[in-house]
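Fold this sequence, please.
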Amino acid sequence: MKLKKPNSLDKIRLIFFSTDETDLRQFEFSLRRIFFTLLFVGGICGTIFMTSVAISNSLSQSDTNISLSKTNKYLTSKLKRLQGDFEKLNHKLVNLEEDTEDLEVLVGLKSEKIEVGGSDKSVISKKNIVMASMPVDYEYSSDKMDEYLDMLENRIGRATSVQNVIEEKFLHTQKKIKHIPSIRPVFGAKITDRFGIRKDPFVERVKHHNGIDLSARYGTKIYSAAAGVVEFTRDRYRLNRGYGKVVIVNHGYGYKTLYGHLSDINVKVGQKVDRWQLIGLSGDTGRATGPHLHYEVWLEGKSQNPEDYILD
Protein backbone atom coordinates (compact mmCIF):
# COMPACT_ATOMS: atom_id res chain seq x y z
CA MET A 1 0.00 0.00 0.00
CA LYS A 2 1.19 3.47 -0.80
CA LEU A 3 -0.07 6.77 0.58
CA LYS A 4 -0.14 9.47 -2.04
CA LYS A 5 -0.88 13.02 -1.19
CA PRO A 6 -3.15 14.63 -3.75
CA ASN A 7 -2.60 18.04 -5.12
CA SER A 8 -5.48 19.41 -3.15
CA LEU A 9 -4.72 19.94 0.54
CA ASP A 10 -8.23 19.01 1.68
CA LYS A 11 -8.16 15.42 0.34
CA ILE A 12 -6.34 12.18 1.13
CA ARG A 13 -5.97 9.34 -1.39
CA LEU A 14 -5.23 5.77 -0.33
CA ILE A 15 -3.87 3.34 -2.97
CA PHE A 16 -3.80 -0.44 -2.29
CA PHE A 17 -1.91 -2.74 -4.70
CA SER A 18 -0.68 -6.31 -4.74
CA THR A 19 2.96 -7.35 -4.23
CA ASP A 20 3.47 -7.92 -7.94
CA GLU A 21 1.76 -4.60 -8.72
CA THR A 22 -0.64 -6.26 -11.14
CA ASP A 23 -3.70 -5.20 -9.15
CA LEU A 24 -4.44 -1.95 -7.28
CA ARG A 25 -7.26 -0.07 -5.67
CA GLN A 26 -7.51 3.52 -4.51
CA PHE A 27 -9.73 5.48 -2.14
CA GLU A 28 -10.00 9.21 -1.78
CA PHE A 29 -11.20 10.99 1.39
CA SER A 30 -12.04 14.57 2.12
CA LEU A 31 -10.31 15.87 5.27
CA ARG A 32 -13.20 18.15 5.92
CA ARG A 33 -15.65 15.26 5.76
CA ILE A 34 -13.45 13.19 8.04
CA PHE A 35 -13.24 16.07 10.50
CA PHE A 36 -16.98 16.62 10.56
CA THR A 37 -17.60 12.89 10.77
CA LEU A 38 -15.30 12.56 13.75
CA LEU A 39 -16.86 15.67 15.27
CA PHE A 40 -20.34 14.26 14.74
CA VAL A 41 -19.42 10.87 16.19
CA GLY A 42 -17.70 12.56 19.16
CA GLY A 43 -20.75 14.70 19.73
CA ILE A 44 -23.02 11.68 19.69
CA CYS A 45 -20.73 9.80 22.09
CA GLY A 46 -20.52 12.85 24.37
CA THR A 47 -24.29 13.24 24.27
CA ILE A 48 -24.75 9.57 25.09
CA PHE A 49 -22.23 9.87 27.94
CA MET A 50 -23.79 13.02 29.37
CA THR A 51 -27.27 11.54 29.05
CA SER A 52 -26.09 8.42 30.86
CA VAL A 53 -24.59 10.53 33.62
CA ALA A 54 -27.75 12.62 33.87
CA ILE A 55 -29.96 9.51 33.99
CA SER A 56 -27.67 7.97 36.61
CA ASN A 57 -27.77 11.14 38.70
CA SER A 58 -31.52 11.38 38.26
CA LEU A 59 -32.00 7.79 39.36
CA SER A 60 -29.66 8.36 42.30
CA GLN A 61 -31.49 11.59 43.20
CA SER A 62 -34.80 9.81 42.86
CA ASP A 63 -33.64 7.07 45.22
CA THR A 64 -32.40 9.72 47.63
CA ASN A 65 -35.71 11.58 47.43
CA ILE A 66 -37.65 8.37 48.00
CA SER A 67 -35.42 7.57 50.98
CA LEU A 68 -35.81 11.11 52.37
CA SER A 69 -39.56 10.96 51.81
CA LYS A 70 -39.78 7.69 53.72
CA THR A 71 -37.59 9.11 56.47
CA ASN A 72 -39.70 12.27 56.62
CA LYS A 73 -42.92 10.25 56.86
CA TYR A 74 -41.38 8.10 59.59
CA LEU A 75 -40.20 11.14 61.56
CA THR A 76 -43.56 12.85 61.12
CA SER A 77 -45.29 9.74 62.41
CA LYS A 78 -42.88 9.57 65.35
CA LEU A 79 -43.47 13.24 66.16
CA LYS A 80 -47.23 12.75 66.09
CA ARG A 81 -46.92 9.77 68.43
CA LEU A 82 -44.57 11.82 70.61
CA GLN A 83 -47.05 14.67 70.63
CA GLY A 84 -49.78 12.21 71.65
CA ASP A 85 -47.57 10.90 74.45
CA PHE A 86 -46.94 14.48 75.60
CA GLU A 87 -50.65 15.21 75.65
CA LYS A 88 -51.35 12.04 77.66
CA LEU A 89 -48.57 12.95 80.07
CA ASN A 90 -49.95 16.46 80.37
CA HIS A 91 -53.43 15.08 81.11
CA LYS A 92 -52.01 12.88 83.86
CA LEU A 93 -50.04 15.84 85.22
CA VAL A 94 -53.16 18.00 85.30
CA ASN A 95 -54.97 15.33 87.32
CA LEU A 96 -51.91 14.91 89.56
CA GLU A 97 -51.72 18.66 90.16
CA GLU A 98 -55.43 18.84 90.97
CA ASP A 99 -55.14 15.93 93.42
CA THR A 100 -52.04 17.54 94.92
CA GLU A 101 -53.88 20.82 95.46
CA ASP A 102 -56.74 18.95 97.16
CA LEU A 103 -54.24 17.24 99.45
CA GLU A 104 -52.60 20.61 100.18
CA VAL A 105 -55.94 21.90 101.40
CA LEU A 106 -56.54 18.71 103.38
CA VAL A 107 -53.28 18.96 105.31
CA GLY A 108 -53.44 22.75 105.62
CA LEU A 109 -50.51 23.50 103.30
CA LYS A 110 -51.18 27.15 102.47
CA SER A 111 -47.89 28.06 100.79
CA GLU A 112 -48.28 29.28 97.21
CA LYS A 113 -44.65 28.48 96.34
CA ILE A 114 -42.78 25.21 96.69
CA GLU A 115 -39.07 24.71 96.08
CA VAL A 116 -38.26 22.42 93.16
CA GLY A 117 -35.19 20.25 93.35
CA GLY A 118 -32.23 21.27 91.26
CA SER A 119 -28.95 23.13 91.41
CA ASP A 120 -30.66 26.51 91.25
CA LYS A 121 -33.50 25.59 93.64
CA SER A 122 -35.93 27.43 91.36
CA VAL A 123 -39.29 28.39 92.78
CA ILE A 124 -42.43 27.85 90.75
CA SER A 125 -45.75 29.52 91.58
CA LYS A 126 -48.88 27.43 91.24
CA LYS A 127 -50.55 30.31 89.46
CA ASN A 128 -47.73 30.69 86.91
CA ILE A 129 -47.55 27.10 85.68
CA VAL A 130 -48.64 27.16 82.01
CA MET A 131 -49.07 24.20 79.70
CA ALA A 132 -46.82 24.53 76.63
CA SER A 133 -49.05 23.09 73.90
CA MET A 134 -47.88 21.84 70.51
CA PRO A 135 -50.14 22.41 67.45
CA VAL A 136 -51.06 19.61 65.07
CA ASP A 137 -48.77 21.01 62.35
CA TYR A 138 -45.90 21.27 64.84
CA GLU A 139 -42.50 21.28 63.10
CA TYR A 140 -39.58 19.69 64.92
CA SER A 141 -37.40 22.15 66.79
CA SER A 142 -34.90 21.00 69.40
CA ASP A 143 -35.22 24.30 71.26
CA LYS A 144 -39.01 24.03 71.44
CA MET A 145 -38.81 20.37 72.42
CA ASP A 146 -36.27 21.09 75.16
CA GLU A 147 -38.42 23.95 76.42
CA TYR A 148 -41.48 21.70 76.53
CA LEU A 149 -39.62 18.91 78.32
CA ASP A 150 -38.21 21.41 80.84
CA MET A 151 -41.75 22.62 81.51
CA LEU A 152 -42.99 19.10 82.15
CA GLU A 153 -39.95 18.30 84.30
CA ASN A 154 -40.55 21.40 86.42
CA ARG A 155 -44.20 20.52 86.89
CA ILE A 156 -43.35 16.96 87.88
CA GLY A 157 -40.64 18.27 90.21
CA ARG A 158 -43.07 20.66 91.88
CA ALA A 159 -45.76 17.99 92.29
CA THR A 160 -43.18 15.60 93.76
CA SER A 161 -41.91 18.26 96.17
CA VAL A 162 -45.43 19.14 97.29
CA GLN A 163 -46.34 15.50 97.75
CA ASN A 164 -43.21 14.96 99.86
CA VAL A 165 -44.29 17.86 102.08
CA ILE A 166 -47.83 16.46 102.19
CA GLU A 167 -46.56 13.00 103.10
CA GLU A 168 -44.41 14.47 105.86
CA LYS A 169 -47.33 16.49 107.19
CA PHE A 170 -49.67 13.53 106.88
CA LEU A 171 -47.33 11.27 108.86
CA HIS A 172 -46.97 14.01 111.46
CA THR A 173 -50.75 14.53 111.52
CA GLN A 174 -51.37 10.77 111.64
CA LYS A 175 -49.06 10.49 114.63
CA LYS A 176 -50.68 13.52 116.22
CA ILE A 177 -54.18 12.10 115.68
CA LYS A 178 -53.28 9.12 117.86
CA HIS A 179 -52.57 11.54 120.70
CA ILE A 180 -55.68 13.71 120.36
CA PRO A 181 -58.54 12.69 122.73
CA SER A 182 -61.36 11.62 120.43
CA ILE A 183 -63.46 8.87 122.06
CA ARG A 184 -66.00 8.53 124.84
CA PRO A 185 -64.02 6.86 127.66
CA VAL A 186 -67.04 4.76 128.63
CA PHE A 187 -68.92 2.58 126.12
CA GLY A 188 -72.46 3.83 125.53
CA ALA A 189 -72.39 6.29 128.44
CA LYS A 190 -74.75 9.26 128.48
CA ILE A 191 -73.69 12.75 129.52
CA THR A 192 -75.41 13.59 132.80
CA ASP A 193 -73.65 16.88 133.50
CA ARG A 194 -72.12 19.11 130.84
CA PHE A 195 -69.11 21.40 130.60
CA GLY A 196 -69.51 25.00 131.76
CA ILE A 197 -71.46 26.91 134.39
CA ARG A 198 -73.58 24.71 136.65
CA LYS A 199 -75.00 24.58 140.17
CA ASP A 200 -72.72 22.56 142.43
CA PRO A 201 -74.92 19.99 144.24
CA PHE A 202 -72.71 20.03 147.33
CA VAL A 203 -72.46 23.75 148.02
CA GLU A 204 -75.62 24.95 146.29
CA ARG A 205 -73.61 27.53 144.36
CA VAL A 206 -73.06 28.21 140.66
CA LYS A 207 -69.55 27.12 139.64
CA HIS A 208 -67.68 26.25 136.46
CA HIS A 209 -67.66 22.56 135.65
CA ASN A 210 -64.33 21.83 133.96
CA GLY A 211 -65.43 18.54 132.42
CA ILE A 212 -68.43 16.33 131.80
CA ASP A 213 -69.98 13.57 133.86
CA LEU A 214 -70.69 10.29 132.10
CA SER A 215 -73.15 7.78 133.46
CA ALA A 216 -71.49 4.49 134.41
CA ARG A 217 -72.46 1.71 136.76
CA TYR A 218 -70.05 0.87 139.51
CA GLY A 219 -67.08 -1.08 138.14
CA THR A 220 -67.62 -0.12 134.45
CA LYS A 221 -64.42 -0.20 132.37
CA ILE A 222 -62.82 3.18 131.69
CA TYR A 223 -60.57 3.61 128.64
CA SER A 224 -57.86 6.12 127.68
CA ALA A 225 -59.20 8.63 125.15
CA ALA A 226 -55.91 8.68 123.20
CA ALA A 227 -52.32 7.48 123.24
CA GLY A 228 -50.07 9.01 125.87
CA VAL A 229 -48.17 8.52 129.12
CA VAL A 230 -49.74 8.27 132.57
CA GLU A 231 -48.64 11.46 134.31
CA PHE A 232 -50.47 11.22 137.62
CA THR A 233 -52.52 8.74 139.68
CA ARG A 234 -54.01 9.02 143.14
CA ASP A 235 -55.10 5.94 145.01
CA ARG A 236 -55.75 7.54 148.38
CA TYR A 237 -58.57 10.02 148.77
CA ARG A 238 -60.85 11.60 151.33
CA LEU A 239 -64.59 11.11 151.26
CA ASN A 240 -66.53 13.91 149.60
CA ARG A 241 -63.29 15.72 148.64
CA GLY A 242 -62.01 16.20 145.11
CA TYR A 243 -62.06 13.60 142.36
CA GLY A 244 -61.22 10.64 144.62
CA LYS A 245 -59.19 8.03 142.77
CA VAL A 246 -58.00 9.81 139.66
CA VAL A 247 -55.79 9.25 136.61
CA ILE A 248 -54.23 11.99 134.44
CA VAL A 249 -52.79 11.06 131.05
CA ASN A 250 -50.40 13.35 129.17
CA HIS A 251 -50.98 12.83 125.45
CA GLY A 252 -48.36 15.26 124.19
CA TYR A 253 -49.01 18.10 121.72
CA GLY A 254 -50.38 20.05 124.70
CA TYR A 255 -53.25 17.61 125.46
CA LYS A 256 -54.07 16.04 128.83
CA THR A 257 -57.13 14.12 130.06
CA LEU A 258 -58.40 13.49 133.59
CA TYR A 259 -60.53 10.56 134.75
CA GLY A 260 -62.07 10.99 138.22
CA HIS A 261 -64.16 9.15 140.84
CA LEU A 262 -62.65 5.76 139.86
CA SER A 263 -63.15 2.71 142.01
CA ASP A 264 -59.94 1.06 140.79
CA ILE A 265 -56.83 2.13 138.84
CA ASN A 266 -55.13 -0.24 136.37
CA VAL A 267 -52.12 1.84 135.31
CA LYS A 268 -49.00 3.34 136.90
CA VAL A 269 -47.22 6.66 136.55
CA GLY A 270 -44.87 6.66 133.57
CA GLN A 271 -46.74 3.86 131.80
CA LYS A 272 -47.45 4.29 128.08
CA VAL A 273 -51.05 3.76 127.06
CA ASP A 274 -52.88 3.58 123.74
CA ARG A 275 -56.33 4.72 122.78
CA TRP A 276 -58.94 2.23 124.07
CA GLN A 277 -56.51 0.87 126.67
CA LEU A 278 -58.12 0.06 130.04
CA ILE A 279 -56.97 2.50 132.74
CA GLY A 280 -59.46 1.84 135.54
CA LEU A 281 -63.04 1.17 136.70
CA SER A 282 -65.80 3.66 137.39
CA GLY A 283 -66.87 4.41 140.93
CA ASP A 284 -68.02 7.11 143.35
CA THR A 285 -64.80 7.97 145.19
CA GLY A 286 -64.20 11.57 146.24
CA ARG A 287 -67.00 14.10 146.07
CA ALA A 288 -69.63 12.22 144.09
CA THR A 289 -73.38 11.72 144.46
CA GLY A 290 -73.19 8.29 142.84
CA PRO A 291 -71.08 6.10 140.53
CA HIS A 292 -70.07 7.89 137.32
CA LEU A 293 -66.98 9.11 135.45
CA HIS A 294 -65.83 12.70 135.63
CA TYR A 295 -63.89 13.36 132.41
CA GLU A 296 -61.82 16.44 131.52
CA VAL A 297 -59.79 17.51 128.45
CA TRP A 298 -57.03 20.12 128.75
CA LEU A 299 -55.11 21.86 125.96
CA GLU A 300 -52.08 24.00 126.79
CA GLY A 301 -53.25 24.25 130.40
CA LYS A 302 -56.80 25.37 129.57
CA SER A 303 -59.90 23.24 130.12
CA GLN A 304 -61.78 22.33 126.95
CA ASN A 305 -65.30 21.07 126.36
CA PRO A 306 -64.79 17.29 126.05
CA GLU A 307 -67.87 17.05 123.83
CA ASP A 308 -65.96 18.94 121.11
CA TYR A 309 -63.46 16.05 121.01
CA ILE A 310 -65.78 13.05 121.21
CA LEU A 311 -66.15 11.54 117.73
CA ASP A 312 -67.62 8.11 118.49
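The longest helix spans residues 31-107. The first strand starts at residue 2 and ends at 4.
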